[in-house]
Prior knowledge:
It is a single chain. The chain is of the alpha/beta class and 315 residues long. An eight-stranded mixed beta sheet has the order 3-2-1-4-5-6-9-10, sandwiched between helices. It has a two-stranded parallel sheet with strand order 7-8. Helix content is 41%, strand content 13%.
Amino acid sequence: MNKRINADFGFSSTTADVIAGIDLAGRRVIVTGASSGIGVETARVLAGAGAEVTLAVRDVQAGSMIADAITAQSGARVAVGRLDLSNLVSISEFVSAWRGPLHILINNAGVMALPTLRLTPAGWETQFATNHVGHFALACGLRSALAAAGGARIVSLSSNAHLRSPVVFEDINFARREYDQWAAYGQSKTANALFAVGATARWQGEGITANAVHPGVIADTNLSRHLDKELLRRIRASGTFRYKSIEQGAATSVLVATSPALEGVGGRYFEDCADAEPVTGTQQELAAMRSGVAPYAQDKALAEKLWELSEAASR
């Protein structure tokens, strides 16, 4: 099952590499969090290949500046819609405003490693609520538009941080355990991977498939805005991680969204433009790993359990 889809692509592949030769004329795309970082690059490349792209962003003014820049570069039509993934009313308004089919939904937006526990008004830990519940509600709201496209794809941005924690169903919101910013982020990224499993299982008959991707570790994006700057400097100097450029970081998302080799394929987890290798071990051992996909992030029973919880959370 987990065969590399193209040996020509890997860690260093860029968006230009993976989009080469692909024509997206007539395709309609939504990219969340497309006002900075790899979201901008993802939108830029898809628009450049002919897609009609909508930037779903919290800051419409910032999104409009990005849209204008992409249009000036590619001549493509780029729209902007306001979307706050932590607010179910905002999600509902965005969905209600959408008209027509949707061929590609890229759930790119996210928040990482909040230093202190923050709960939404509904009582959910903020990273879980924003990274997972918000995107879950968005995808479910757009289900009919995705089905109307006939072969739609959802790309769910997960992370190798999922190796830090499964979804702790007994205490998602850290009511009975000490808050850990990386465990919280990790379980939200596991949820992103499980969403791809659950959505494909439920919606594949409607022509909708979903896959999860780890973009890689990318320096200097807004995702790291909550981290201590001195700590970031020390981490980068240590050589612990291999860093990617923005163009390399967005490549796996673009590949999974557009590659003909992935037509009808769903429920998988990709990194470095290929299927990730399954890894096993104790939770401590998994947390120390830098790559691979944990079994709990691909478990169909856990995906179903999460789906039922998410339906309740997004009402």
